[in-house]
Structure prediction request, 410 residues.
Amino acid sequence: MLKRKTELKTPTSGTSAELSVRYRLIEAASRLFCRYGINAVGVDAVIAEAGTAKASLYKNFGSKEGLVEAVLVHEGQAWREWFLGALLEGDAPAREKLHRIFPLLRAWFSDERFYGCPFINAVGEHDKDDARLRELTIAHKKVILASIAALAAEAGLPAPENVAHQLGLLIDGAIIAAMVTRDPGAADLGASMSRLLLGEPAAVH
Amino acid sequence: MLKRKTELKTPTSGTSAELSVRYRLIEAASRLFCRYGINAVGVDAVIAEAGTAKASLYKNFGSKEGLVEAVLVHEGQAWREWFLGALLEGDAPAREKLHRIFPLLRAWFSDERFYGCPFINAVGEHDKDDARLRELTIAHKKVILASIAALAAEAGLPAPENVAHQLGLLIDGAIIAAMVTRDPGAADLGASMSRLLLGEPAAVH
DNA sequence: TATCAGACAGACCGTTCTGTCTCTTTTGTC
DNA sequence: GACAAAAGAGACAGAACGGTCTGTCTGATA
Prediction:
């Protein structure tokens, strides 16, 4: 997921050694969950990948479900740092920044370890009447859409909230298409539609 | 999934009693897989839901994986029959038919048993480097996009193939948004973008 | 009535699952 | 070097997994 190797220091707890184990577990679980699916990966596989003891997993996360949530929170944080960082960087006009969205996604899709959106995949393989994962996903998307809406407002677009939701639809659609086809070109389809949405004449047709 | 109760008669095999068991298993597995996720549902749960013997499952499908594929094939067929049937019905202008897409999706999203797209969810919870499920998904989408592209061509739109792919992106995005938020209104966002794409002035902004 | 195919019921097998436990080794600090 | 805390290694329990097998019942055919 184009993860930056931020040696995260959560302010919440513990010694540096404990954090290191926690970090290794999250990283290992993230790799395996994203590629193979959460339910298809057992805790034994996670601790083998992380090189830790099983007790360390349960000491840090309480249960596999706790680990899953921690992975999603961490992945979401890392992804937003990368994406929003690159999106908002510099002092280009807001409209120009909006046009960065799909080239950025294309870079993500081109990563050999791109396996779709961990949040979407997690929701898809769990009970859909359970609100927990869906709420985590909504919270993640809300942060992203808020930044996009701010850009849309700054660009003077009418109904910036609505534009952000429309772009969100395109983003999700591109993620799915890229996951299924393994073709990063799905981002270009989104780009052409976003040009249409943002008022530039479409270059495609 | 708004499934019509077509008492399917596959031309391939067997007595009517055998088909009935096969049908019950597919229906039961479909319900459980869609709601809870494939890997979260065991074969014991499937046979309990279907009211069949475990031997009947393995006689008809060989393995759980065989059942999964049969479920996807059947779900895809039923969904396309419903969706394309309603999309192409009557002799309205092609452009008008294209505008049916998202109201149709809204009806699907409003079903209490809407749990997202079974294909997308299946891909998400299995090994992404395994091509089997991804190819099934691509085949399913290809049929749909071909019908949409034909409509786009009939409507005289330039680059109908491209329009179909763009609409496909919107469809997938709407499905994901509806699954995560459980709000059928995700379809309306798609509708507003499709108006933009099809050349009508957007009513939204 | 005898037969036979198909389905149900469920015991059973080996494996794998999550989660707990004990014991040993490492590590950081005085 | 001594000592306490953390972490590794892995046995273990109980449940659930996918899959196989043996029987019993039923309903149609002859």
Q: What stands out?
A: Residues 15, 17, 42-44, 54-55, 57-58, 63-64 of chain A lie near DNA strand C (CB under 10 Å from a C1'). The CA atoms of residues 28 and 48 of chain A lie 9 Å apart.
